Every structure is written in C-alpha cells, then in structure tokens.
Amino acid sequence: MNKAITEYQTLVFDCDGVVLNSNRIKTQAFYKATKHYGHDPAQALVDYHVQHGGISRYLKMEYFLTDILGKGIVPTELEDLLNRFACAVKDGLLSCEVAAGLDELRKKTAHTNWLIVSGGDQNELREVFTARGLADYFNGGIFGSPNDKDKILAREKANKNIDSNALFLGDSKYDYVAANKAGLDFVFLSDWTEVKDWQFWINENELKSSRNLASSVTL
Q1: 125 and 158 share a domain?
Q2: Concatenated DSSP letters for the chain?
C-alpha cells in the first residue's frame, strides 16, 4: 500500500477492534457462555479465540465441542452455546466505545464504497449498527457470519460491490490473510487489537499500520 486512503474506491472494515472497541467484550462473552462446563474448558476457548481473532463464533463453538470437550456436535447444545454467547455480548456491543474519526473519514472518502466484513453474527451486527446510528456510513453493506470473511469478500467482489482498488482495515492476523487472499490492500490497526506480538508480526510481514481510524484519516 503506497497510496492515500482517499485514493481507494472501496474501504472494507472489520468491526471488533476497528469500528467498535468490542474485542474484550467478545473475549469475556466466550468465557461466560461456556463457564458452566468448568474454568479450564472455558479458558481454553478464550485462548483459542484470542489466537484466532476474526473467525466466526460458529466455528469457535464447534471447536469447543469437538476439540476442547472431545465430543460430537449436538445441534441443540451448539445452539444453546451460541444463544448464551449472544446474550452475553449484546449489551456490550450497544454500549461500547465507537472509533473516533469515523465521521471525519467518511467525509474525506465521500466517493468511496464502505463495507463491514466481520466474524460477528450478521443479523446482530446490522441490529447494533442501526441502533447506534452507524449503519448509514456503510453504504456497501454490513456482512458477517455464518459466512466467513473469505466467502463474503469473494462474493462481494464477484457482485462488483468491492472494487479492485480496495483497502481492508483490520486488527487481526486473519483479517490480513483474508484481505491478501482477496487481493485487497491492508492496514493493521493496533490500538484495540488482541494480537500480542503485533509489532513483530507487522514488521515481519512488512505491513502498514495505524493506531486507529482517526489516525488512518491521514494515511
């Protein structure tokens, strides 16, 4: 990426840790949703979640059942876990901090198509963004799980909703992998990330980074 953010035709945003300061909310919700199985399994899921930021809750809860608990997937049990997670996370998403600089960036990129592409539940995202008055920023749409980011990006590119001149703003390693696979430029936002070795990682991969959306305005 060697051009200003205003030169892109499409901006793709992750949600948690980029637009909303909600990474910690999601992390705590995974523990709350599974703590009735005991501390150790719940903490193992939290550790897995932090290591695999950006992947949907559906896949993480399936992993919890199959790999952490060592049992098969029972649809009713999986649904119960997902409902517990949704209840634990909903209030936090409605009250957490919104990234500063969002409005300024929207004004500076008035010509640009904006999308949310998140690992969060799509219906939940749309409800939260509407309730918080953020939905209108994202004229290209708000997308999330159960489809993963790879599928969403491929579909929206095929639909011409994502231009070839596009930038992904994310805060996880998976965001970068998904952006790179889809042929999008990438900027890593560090302020709210849960990637512990992010400085080493971005240097190793020669990635451009910014602290947050407010500082991204000047990219």
Answers
A1: yes
A2: --S-GGG-SEEEE-SBTTTBS-HHHHHHHHHHHHGGG-HHHHHHHHHHHHHTTTS-HHHHHHHIIIIIS-----HHHHHHHHHHHHHHHHHHHHHSPBPTTHHHHHHHTTTSEEEEEEEEEHHHHHHHHHHTT-GGG-TTEEEEETS-HHHHHHHHHHTTSS-SSEEEEESSHHHHHHHHHHT-EEEEE-TT---TTHHHHHHHTT-EEESSHHHHTT-
